[in-house]
Amino acid sequence: MPLRIVILLLVSTLAISCSSDSDASESQATEPEQDFWVSLEEAQHQALDKGRYILLDVYTEWCGFCRRMIRETYADKRVQEALDQYFYPVRIDAESSRTVAFQGESYTMQDLALAFGVQSFPTTIFLNPQGEPVALQPGFIEAERFHKMLSFVGSESYRNQTFQQYSQNN
User: Fold this and answer.
1) CATH 3.40.630.30 correct for 40-169
2) pLDDT of residue 35
């Protein structure tokens, strides 16, 4: 009888372990793929031509909240619509030595993040069409709040009211 219990426990443990691995691979496989990201160079060129803003998503590979922003916030339909309407979204890996051009200067992604004063991840930076910072928001942002932020900046409401005023009226 004790041997039977040990075998049942082993089989149960194995089943739970396989189930967890399966769940993890499923969640990775179902993580939404956003194809709306553009290069920083393209964003700067298009923003000037079209008068749209640039959104910099500053992230790191190891950052759990960065992955959560991709999975939950950027996957939200309203967020995607606001991005489409007002922004050219760009991702910057704050630990990358890959070179990018910004405002006619060459930077590594890491140096560019430092130049903007990024100290935590994720950090979202809103730039006007000329590439000048409008706002910097560190931390994970829920989809509903992020949608309001995108609309607040993109509609240029930030020019004549606070975000709190905008949020109360919209």
Assistant:
1) no
2) 79
The tokens for 41 are 């160079």
pTM of the model: 0.80
What is the residue extent of each domain of the chain?
40-169
Cis check for the bond before 32: say yes or no (omega within 30 of 0): no
pLDDT in tens, 10-58: 333 333 333 333 333 333 333 445 678 999 999 999 999 999 999 999 9
Q: What b/e sequence results for 26-56 when a residue is b if at least 16 CB atoms lie within 10 Å of its CB, and e otherwise?
A: eeeeeeeeeeeebebeebbeebeeeebbbbb
CA distance 81 to 44: 20
Q: Phi then psi for 98, rounded to 5 degrees?
A: -65, 140
- Look-up: residue for tokens 């829920």? 142
Q: What is the DSSP string of 75-110?
A: TSHHHHHHHHHHEEEEEEETT---EEEETTEEEEHH
